[in-house]
Amino acid sequence: MATGIKDKVAILGMGCSKFGERWDASPEDLMVEAYTEAMADAGITPEQLGAAWFSTHMDDVGTGRGGTPLSIALRLPNIGVTRVENFCAGGSEAIRAAVYAVAAGACDIALAVGVEKLKDTGYGGLPMSTVGTYIPQWYPNAVAPANFAQLASAYRTRHGVDAALLKRAIAHVSVKSHANGAKNPKAHFQKAVSEETVLKAPIIAEPLGLFDCAGVSDGAAAVIVTRPEIARELGKRNLVTFKALQVAVSNGWELQSSEWDGSYVHTTRIAAKRAYDEAGIRDPRKEVSMTEVHDCFSITELVTMEDLFLSETGQGYKDVLNGDFDAEGRIPCQIDGGLKCFGHPIGASGIRMLYELYLQLQGRAGARQLANPTIGLTHNLGGQPSQNVCSVSIVGLEGA
Amino acid sequence: MIGITGFGGYVPRLRLSRQAVAQANAWYAPQFAGRKGTRAMANWDEDSITMAVAAARDCLGAAGDRRRVRGLMLASDTLPFVERLNAGVVAGALTLADDVDAIDLGGSQRAALSAVAQAVARVKAGGGSTLVVAADNRKTLAGSAQELEYGDAAAALLIGSENVLAEYLGGGTLSVDFVDHFRSAGEETDYHWEERWVRDEGIGKLAPKAIASALAQAGVQAGQVDHFIFPSAFAKMDAQLAKACGIRAEAVVSMLTDQVGDSGLPHGLLVLAHLLETAKPGAHILLAQFGSGAQALVFRVTEAIGSFRPARGVSGWLARGAEERNYTKFLAFKGQLALERGMRGEQDKKTALSTAWRHRTALAGLVAGRCEVTGSVHFPPSRLSYDQGKPLQDTQKPYPLADRPAKVLSWSAEYLSYHPAPPHHYGQVDFEGGGRILMDFTDLDVGEVDAGTAMEMVFRIKDTDERRGYTRYFWKATPARAAAIPHAN
Asked: Where is the Thiolase C-terminal domain (chain A) (predicted)?
């Protein structure tokens, strides 16, 4: 009988590069930036690392394929390095692998690093990815904004929500995240925006405008994990431990049955239930202090609030408009600015989200510090709503 | 009795305004200022193959009854492939049996009539029902008379011996190398000789010989002809020819010039398919076409004519036209205007031919897999069926979706990717009876679809691999609008 991951592994240290259009930095530079901060935070030397997991998605810019890009960039001491790749959940997958390795006793201290250098692809948004030989012969040459925008058309239909009202609700998602990002020196975008600016922005994919889409940025993040007793031996206090690490992957049900109505993300609901169960959370609305969710597009964040059971189904847009997920709301969401302000360097995002929760739980979040958070949740959604990889991770103070 | 047992046509939805073309080109070619009406214009994702498929579906109706087609003749002067059986692509899209005898014909404006004559011979020899499909996607030079006169369209006739709607009575052919216009291999547009010479020495002298021969074989007097069809870009050429041949003036059939233009090779069959929608039993039809000689066919409409209706019919296609006044869109769709595509337009479209072959039924025919145990429908078909977490293995049987009613579950229209006609619309489409596909939409206006909009399937160009010159086809969804194709059971 599986007992879950709760409190078996602690964060020893974390680092996060400045996110943005890092024209001056190579992927290697970004990895070094995040890793150096994480190692200093952990207070260890490279020889103490037992294994590493490396998350990156695109091979276009030389960070893909195998474990060597990480090992060479960081001059690691010939430890095992494994590249993990699971769309936008890749960063969370790297964490999961490192945490499981430590929990299994396979190594004492493990490293997870995620990086993506999107601005070297030459695109203003995400480039088109190759998807094998069969899919391009029938599938639309689809882009992420339109795949996620379909949540909006289905959500409106399912819940009878007026198009203009939903547009205003998703605009608030972006307004809120920009307000938060303005307080974060590591965010790509550090400027507040008005609702009017969001509503009037050019349409990218109906009904999503420019400000409904995550930024396109370069960045890297790193986490070093160990068992709590080792962390204490190394002098660490106020440990942040893993409560749950869950991944749910589509099996074709959404696209191959008529049961899914397209207005929510099925895998998020499954991963969330499993994660709450693993973490021993019975009432997430009361027990979760804050979330960092996959706001690749504003509609995704709105729907995710329902899928994580933080809003009633069909009521998420009202909660968003009420400010429930604002910095001062009942469960702050994207207190660091989210993908909206950090952009979405794919391999790094999951670890970047954890970085914010780690800082918040340790009371080190500076101008955006929340009052006494105890439990935080990160959520990633890779692929598209109808066919995806979803991760839900929960961390908190030891014993919380 | 051998003759026409089914008919249909296809006219693209877009109709280019001649006035808009004349206005755009007035600085260069002011002589076209007075041109009126529209010409049919293929969408960017249409070519002779896709239009042939549309016409054939109009003729054959829903997929259930296609085993009777034993031969397929595709006639076109604008086939996308010089080597690769274009008719084979059409056969796949129509889910015809693999042992159908499919051939491509072309080379002259009268090739569609040659195909009909060959189909008659084939039926007579016991070869079974033969489908004749003709289509042209005509390329012209900007600022030319042909740009205004030509049109894009397709037509289809099923030739057989059961329930004959119009009996084939006889034909006449003249094959001579009279070159009024030509197009060399590899060229996109025609080169024309002087109109008066073509009219007087060519059509005026050669066509009557083929017509006389056809009428003689049919045992029909010229004065008995009730409907005379003769496509020509020359004004009143059909009336002059009728007079010269002793055909009554009132027998001359309208050539759809004001809506469609001259669609070239398929035009005779298109007008015939239009005429047959309202033809009366006993009426004699003379259909003639000119090109490298001339050919004429004679039919007599039977009492059975009222028993058949095409799925939409030429009149149905004519009625659903949407006027296009944007001349640069026409040029871009015809490949005559190089627009900025952005980086996403640089994507390599190389096709894995082995993959295309392995999945040919799903890709060409839009055939899903239906689990015989649970009834769940899967596209693409798979070895394992989804069934509440307990997959069943090898229970799926082929299940065509192309003629099933469908509706939009979710959709978007985006401006980010490269698309020849932005915004790029796509979404999830649910089929009546099961099946769901995330697919491209085509032939629609911004704001025309929403969740719940009824859609129908059309066979279109999916991608073009310009580096290697390969066209890839698949199905797209378009608003069903009126007169949907009947439901297949």
From this structure: 257-392
Residue A381 and residue A300 in contact, taking contact as beta carbons nearer than 8 Å: yes
When pLDDT is cut at 50, 70 and 90, the band that residue A64 belongs to is: confident
pLDDT digits (tens, 9 = 90+) for A236-282: 999 999 999 999 999 999 998 889 999 999 999 999 999 999 999 99
Q: Which of residues 127-146 of A touch B (CB under 8 A)?
A: 127-128, 133-134, 136-143, 145-146
Judge whether A88 counts as a catalytic residue: yes
What count of other Cβ atoms lies within 10 Å of the Cβ of residue A94?
33
Q: Distance between CA atoms of B164 and B74, rounded to whole angstroms?
A: 21
Residues 6+ apart with CB under 8 A from B470: B349, B351, B464
Chain A contact for B413 (CB, 8 A cutoff): yes
Reported pTM: 0.96
Residue numbers in B near A261 (CB within 8 A):
409
* Residues of chain B under the 50 pLDDT cut: 483-489
Q: Which residues of A touch B362 (CB under 8 A)?
A: 138
Task: Kindly state whether B44 is in contact with chain A, defined as any CB-CB distance less than 8 angstroms.
Answer: no
Q: What sign for the dihedral angle of Cα B71, B75, B80, B83?
A: positive
The set of residues, in sequence order, having a beta carbon less than 8 Å from that of A190 and lying 6+ positions away, is A181, A182, A183, A184, A337, A341
Contact A178, A189 (CB under 8 A): yes
Secondary structure string (H, E, C) spanning B148-193: HHECCEEEEEEEECCCCCEEEEEEEEEECCCCCEECCCCCCCCEEC
Distance set, CA B117 to CA A32, B79, B160, B296 (Å) = 77, 21, 12, 10
Count the alpha carbons within 13 Å of A265 in the hemisphere toward its beta carbon.
39
The SS3 call for residue B257 is coil
Instruction: Decide if A247 contacts A390 (C-beta within 8 A).
Output: yes
List Cβ neighbours of B128 (8 Å cut-off, separation of 6 or more). Answer: B68, B69, B70, B71, B122, B160
> What does chain A come to in residues?
400
Residues of B within 8 A of A140 (CB-CB) are 424, 426, 438-440
- Do A11 and A397 contact (CB within 8 A), yes or no? no
